[in-house]
Design brief:
CATH class: Alpha Beta
Number of strands: 7
Number of domains: 1
CATH superfamily: NAD(P)-binding Rossmann-like Domain
Radius of gyration: 20 Å
Helix content: 25-40%
Order of helices and strands: EHEHEHEHEHEHHHEH
Strand order of the largest sheet: 3-2-1-4-5-6-7
Largest sheet: 7 strands, parallel
Length: 287
């Protein structure tokens, strides 16, 4: 492997054997790329590194950010305009993908949004209109992507992967984003039920806190991030989306052909611990 983790030949000669990545020949659509710090950006890069062709989606004022980020990737993927809450736009992108590639093998749902009055301690005051927006963008949109893009997948199947944040517990200040993530995970399970007959796998990745633009909009994010330091058995680097990207690549690949309807935690093991870790080394020194 080279320093970026991609597979390379040990010889530069013309007869040297080539080694393909686990996504070689796959065509992957990735949503949610804004800046190079986006989790989706790391996922898109990892997909390319493992042999996939990638196309990104964005819309509105975010388009320019996504296009600038795309230029930093190699090769630079195209950016198609799609608001995932707009069925007509999703359908138009599906048509464009069919014309471009003839089909599609995987979709990454890295979309989440809640109005300001849904976060930061306003759970009881948040109006339905704001909650409905959060649910539509963050959860129902996965169904929209499945309905429009699964028909492009081959008879042998494909994969949808969505990003979540552990919805089995309540988090400080996360408020209505928690129920939207719970809804997202449930949508994933129901899609897994209905799409299994087409050999399409649907899974979600529950990531630990990562430093992204979206994280900046969550009040108290630094508190969540600090909690991981003392409770994740493997430790946690909030600046490194690599572990989440690598897990997503695995789920998009044929290596995950027997996995569907799953929520996979990539959080340094934080979710498995009931309380912060004790420093046993310090206790032994005191004795």
């Amino acid at each position: 492997m080279d320093s970026a983790g991609s597979m390379v030949s040990s010889s530069d000669g013309p007869d040297a054997p080539s080694v393909e990545g686990i996504l070689a020949g796959k065509r992957i659509l990735v949503t949610g790329v804004l800046t190079p710090k986006s989790i989706a950006y790391s996922i898109a890069e990892a997909c390319q590194r493992h042999g996939a062709e990638v196309v990104l989606t964005s819309f509105g004022r975010a388009m320019s950010l996504t296009q600038r980020s795309a230029k930093r990737m190699s090769p630079a993927p195209d950016v198609l305009e799609m608001d995932a809450t707009n069925v007509e736009q999703a359908r138009a992108v599906a048509v464009a993908v069919r014309e471009r590639w003839g089909g599609l093998d995987g979709v990454v749902h890295a979309i989440g949004f809640a109005p300001e009055d849904c976060l930061g301690g306003h759970f009881l005051e948040a109006p339905w209109e704001s909650v409905a927006t959060a649910m539509h963008v963050s959860a129902f949109s996965l169904k929209t992507l499945a309905a429009e893009f699964v028909p492009l997948m081959p008879p042998t199947g494909g994969a949808l992967v969505a990003l979540t944040f552990d919805a089995t517990v309540a988090w400080p200040l996360y408020d209505w984003m928690g129920p939207t993530k719970a809804a997202l995970e449930a949508v994933g399970r129901y899609l897994a039920r209905d799409l299994g007959r087409r050999h399409v796998r649907v899974n979600t990745v529950s990531a630990g806190p990562l430093e992204t633009m979206a994280a900046k909009s969550i009040p108290g994010f630094s508190t969540l991030k600090d909690a991981w330091v003392g409770q994740a058995p493997l430790g946690w680097n909030a600046a490194d989306a690599g572990p989440v990207a690598d897990t997503t690549v695995f789920l998009l690949s044929e290596m995950a052909r027997g996995i569907s309807g799953e929520v996979i935690h990539v959080d340094g093991g934080y979710h498995s611990q009931g309380a912060p870790l004790l420093d046993h080394r310090g206790e032994q020194e005191e004795q």
